[in-house]
Amino acid sequence: METVDVASQRPATTGANPAKPAFTKKEYLIVFIFVTSLFMLWGIAITMGDVLNRHFQKVLSISKAESGLVQFSIFGAYAVMGIPAGLFMKRFGYKNGVLLGLALYAIGAFLFIPSANAESFAAFRGALFVLACGLATLETVAHPFMAALGDQRTSDQRINFAQAFNGVGAIIGPLIGGYFILRVGHGMENDLTSVKVLYAVIGAIILLVAFSFSLVKVPRLADPHAEADGAEDLRHIQQSGKTLFQHKHFVWAVIAQFFNVAAQGGTWAFFIVYGAEKMPGMSDERAAYFFSMSMFLMMMGRFIGVFLMRYIAPNILLAAAAVGNIIMAVIVAQSAGWFSFGALMMMNFFMSIMFPTIFSLGLKNLGKHTERGASFIVMGVVGGALFPPVMGLIADHDVAVSYYLPIICYIVIFLFGSRFSKVS
Fold first, then answer.
1. Residues 320-361: tens digit of each pLDDT
2. Which of 170, 174, 183, 203 could anchor a disulfide with 188, C-beta 3.0 to 4.6 Å?
3. What Pfam families does the record point to (predicted)?
4. 99: CB partners within 8 A, 6+ apart
């Protein structure tokens, strides 16, 4: 991986007080913009999976519990690819890690063509798995990559800023899926042909992005999570000799990320189902558009979170967001018309800062273990594979009642933010 002298990366000081750290550096700007765009690209893919969840229920005649296997295929790839992606990044650097992720993303998208021709749910799951291996690689690389583009003290802000554009992608995904996949009438066929064509176009676009990034020159970087705010702290980290799993805040970050993505995967998987079944007269297409609106709330939540982190500690903000979603989940489960549906949309607002903040807090002061740490936190995303099928079993009886389950997840996140995120 690209390295520079650590001392050259330490913030300048005036007297005893360190200078205010910059958000990023001028020489990193082009790379910063490109890496931020990657967050948007996997946001599109993840939320498109939730559209496919509903579409496959109808076109392939599967149950809600079976449709939860869409999320199992997507998030299960994170468990498989997390460590290999981290090892690849450590050996070949950030740039090659990004190119590998984009290549797998494109291959998975193109595999939708034979899957649609075969009208096979198993084949679609295989295509989604390959595509999601690309997403897992991008996430493993992009978070420490973004953290490396400046001072450690502003890494929370940078990652949350980039995740806001992940929110942009999450808005675009349901809009595309609702229009091209779930739309019925107006000359549109509600079958697998639209899925095949759409993913072929997506694959071509991802290949173009990969080619463009291959031409970008990446400056030499040092991961700021290997640094401390002062020389004394730096010597302490270098001499502590801790193994990765002796960093308790990291271990709790993996656990918190598991439950965070479990709640996220379940909430998103049955959002469209909830709208179609619990809101009178709401079609799948219209529910998908409301899903997109809720992703706008998520994007706004991340921008607001970046601002608030200038005044409120990230772990405290994380704990408060967890409490907010516990309240929202209870309201959703009551099936009280627009009041509950509005709470379902607001869950994405409170969810907004959770993934990037847990990720950033978990990487603090890991030093030489940063790349491996990022891999394990990405592997925590496997929670999104296990939770939706369980929620689906309950949703087959009452989709509203299934939203009690994410409360368990938010209790764990609250404990991480309020007690177990501090670096020892």
1. 999 999 999 999 999 999 999 999 999 999 998 998 899 889
2. 183
3. MFS_1
4. 210, 213, 214
